[in-house]
What we know:
Blueprint: H1 2-26, H2 41-53, E1 57-58, H3 74-84, H4 88-98, E2 105-111, H5 116-128, E3 132-136, H6 138-143, H7 145-153, E4 157-160, H8 167-170, H9 174-192, E5 198-199, H10 211-219, E6 223-224, E7 229-230, H11 241-250, E8 256-262, H12 268-283, E9 287-288, H13 316-323, E10 336-340, E11 343-347, E12 353-355, E13 358-362, H14 363-369, E14 373-377, E15 382-387, E16 390-395, E17 400-404, E18 410-414, E19 418-420, E20 423-427, H15 428-434, E21 439-444, E22 449-453
Helix pairs in contact: 2-3, 5-12, 11-12
Amino acid sequence: MKQKRKFGLMLVRMMLLTLVLIAAVGAPLGFQPQGMPEVKAHPMKEQAAVGSATHKVNLAAPQKVQTVNNSTNGAAATAGALASAKPKKKLEASQVTKKKAPGKTVYLTFDDGPSPHTDQVLEILQQEEVTATFFVLGQQAKRYPEVIRRIVDGGHALGNHTYNHDYDALYDSFGHFWKQVKATEEVLREITGTRTPLVRAPGGTYGHFDKTYFNLLEQGGYKVFDWNVDSGDSKRKGVPANEIVSHVKKEKPQDQVIVLMHDGGGHEETVKALPEIIHYYKKLGYAFSTLSAEQKPVQFTLDPGIGKKNRPIPSAEWVASNVVPNAALFEPEIPLTVEAGNVQMRLAAGEYVMQDGQYLAPVRTVMERLGADVYWSEATQSAFIEWGDSSVIADTQRGVLTAKRKDGSDVEWEVKFERKAQALWIPLRPLLEALNHPIVEAVSTATERRVTAQ
């Protein structure tokens, strides 16, 4: 009886061993338990990327930095790690999809406005349910601010066409061109609250731009757009509508079309031609869109004889103080941190601006956050600032900052003051220097700007 029991137990053990062997053979090679993917290393790599993306950069040479979203949420970090752990082939496939060429698109552009004709153009665009880009003159925008607002409210794009379209001044030197671009930029910012990086040269770039113009505008954060379809509406005064339409139709259709038209004074025939031009491109299957800084601009080739004009080249110092820091104006709005006298304060986006290579901010906002006392004299139109042992007077009538030194002497700085919404805005560099706290470092990261003073 005992031998039968032993035999039965041996038989059961042999059957169990056989089942285990079958299961082992049936499992695929490299099998690992599911639910525990090895992704812990990926968040570490993302953290390293964040560290390298937010290194300090000298403000005099701003760099475009690729930012990484460093979320503290564990689930988000795991999701990011899992995404980075996807097979390589799938990533390549998605990249190919992103690079897929866009369909046929037409960009209607209007130069020299706004004018009374601009409202007529806007009405037609609204009726046809299409958008356009308006390259406006600063002096005209200042004259018709309500039209500028209607352009923006209609979903259209604004571009900078300089201030007064004066060829002699604009193409005499790059400094003059830059000055007009900045003047128009400020006019548009005051009306809309935003800046536009889109620029179009009056008359186009050919025969007007040399390499200096192209390079410095790009370095300053601007995108210069010419065109590849000329409507011919500015060939002479009073070009009839049918001729304008004919000019457009004779151009060979391309996938990306930028049409040059004008909405300035004397262009009522362009208004008459516009509906037929829109219908023409609709029949050809084009989509309508606005120009943007993200797309590659259409630009004319460089005129081989442009070097004969012998125009002055801006100095390296002028470029460093005006052009280089300008690009930061078109980056995402980020706060500005100011450290001075062992005190730190922060200005949110909108509480400061960068202008002519300098930060400007409301003097009361800045100084009171740093712990100073600020008084205003209506009689003398001056601000009095007292901070520790330092005393400064901001005389807006003379355009002078005066620092009262301990030895009884006065030190003055010529300063351009601005009045905005009943606040006095002052450049930070001379202000802090007058208060015995000169700026020693200016840095920029992907999420913050910082000025450090003594």
